[in-house]
Write a structure and sequence with these properties.
This protein is mainly α and 127 residues long. It has two domains: 55 residues, no CATH class; 50 residues. It is built from six helices and no strands. It starts with 17 loop residues before the first helix and ends with a helix.
Length: 127
């Protein structure tokens, strides 16, 4: 990797143990260390690929991407997305049912305006 463009690196410090801190707290620590070293590029961008793998910004970028994925697939997030989709589907079904009923009611109103067989006979003078 090309490290010529890399900014001066923050002295390495022992990264707190993810087991004792929890993933979110550990990630926040790593991301803060990367931001202290300068602007953290987006994971996979050209600027990111020019960083040394030991650069705290490189690691922070990877951790940010991992945190985004962890949030994206979390049980709570997936549950909320499913609930939102079910609610939207229910709303669409209710709208369709209301529209179907309105069409049925309009058809009934049209039928009511049609003369009955007895009324037609009376108009024709047939008894």
């Amino acid at each position: 990797m090309n490290t010529a463009a890399a900014k001066p690196q923050v002295p390495l410090q022992r990264t707190p143990d993810v087991i004792t801190m929890g993933a979110a707290a550990w990630s926040a620590t790593v991301i803060a260390r990367g931001r202290a070293a300068g602007e953290v590029p987006r994971y996979g961008d050209e600027e990111w690929s020019k960083l040394s793998t030991s650069d705290p910004r490189f690691v922070a970028s990877v951790v940010i991407a991992a945190e985004c994925w962890r949030d994206h697939v979390s049980f709570d997030r997936v549950e909320q997305q499913l609930a939102d989709e079910l609610a939207a589907t229910g709303w669409v079904l209710q709208r369709q049912a209301a529209q179907d009923f309105a069409e049925l009611a309009a058809g009934v109103r049209r039928l009511v305006k049609m003369p009955t067989e007895a009324e037609l006979r009376q108009r024709r003078g047939v008894t």
